Amino acid sequence: MKYSLILNLYHYRHYIWRNAWSELRHRYAGTGMGIFWNLLHPLVEIMTYTLVFSLLFSHRTHGIMSYRLYITSGVLTWGVFTSSVQRGSNTFIEHSRYLKQLNLPLEIFVAKIILTFTLILHIYYCLFLLTSTLLGNPLQWKFLLLPIFLILLQVLALGMTLILAHLRVLFPDVKEMLQAFITLWRWTLPVIYPEEVLPESLRRWLFLNPPYVFLRSIRALILEHALPGWQDWLIMGIWIFLLLGCGMIVTHKLQHDVRESL
């Protein structure tokens, strides 16, 4: 039964959490500063974007915040989202030794990767909000809702990754195809350019790009202190339902083939 995926994620929730937290803690094992690199890397990245775009762009967009915060939020969000998908798509091959020895559901290994990057995304945004405040964008109580949007985006990534992880084992070329696709995919979204540069005829169809409404909602909350309307909530819910549902079906249909192919 395909809905057993949700039950498995719930049943192994402590296992998923422990392993995700362990991976985050040991991500830089062997280095002198260890876990603190999880803070220093995003801090350096945020400060680099802020400095570079402060020098390159002096005009203001979106009414209250400069382009440097607009592009930094887009690049950080997109970077973690796509890293989740790419790393997660390879998780069955990466953990093939464990999957051959342990009779554990395949999906919990994907969930562990997604949760790890969800924690990383929250670290990024804690530092980003601090930087944003220093640049004149005051903290708002609405920012307390930010984790909801970050988690919803990563649930979207979970659905996509469940599909890709199974296909990656059965069709090795998926890895190269995914890398090429993600490079092109970024340019179909307003990640590093304002969506106003797109013709109106194209902008009205952006909602057909799964991450778009999630990215727009995150930016609107931080830069404009605005919450999404019911249409945006509906679109996000539809995309999560479709991709997570497809992920459940693919897991149900292909999990035995994947185990035999590992």
TrEMBL record:
TM spans (from-to): 35-57, 69-88, 108-131, 143-167, 233-251
**The keyword Transmembrane is annotated on this UniProt entry:** yes
> Which protein are we looking at?
Transport permease protein
Question: Organism source for this protein?
Answer: Vecturithrix granuli
One matching Pfam family is: ABC2_membrane
Record localization: Cell inner membrane; Cell membrane
Gene Ontology molecular-function annotations? ABC-type transporter activity
Predominantly, its location class is membrane
Q: What Gene Ontology cellular component terms go with this record?
A: plasma membrane
Q: What does the similarity note say?
A: Belongs to the ABC-2 integral membrane protein family.
User: Superkingdom of the source?
Assistant: Bacteria
Asked if Magnesium is a keyword of the record, the answer is no
* Lineage of producing organism: Bacteria, Candidatus Moduliflexota, Candidatus Vecturitrichia, Candidatus Vecturitrichales, Candidatus Vecturitrichaceae
What's in the keyword line of the UniProt record?
A: Cell inner membrane, Cell membrane, Membrane, Transmembrane, Transmembrane helix, Transport
Record GO biological process = lipopolysaccharide transport
Q: Which PANTHER family match?
A: INNER MEMBRANE TRANSPORT PERMEASE, TRANSPORT PERMEASE PROTEIN
Q: How does it sit in the membrane?
A: Multi-pass membrane protein
Sequence ranges assigned to domain ABC transmembrane type-2 in this UniProt record: 33-254
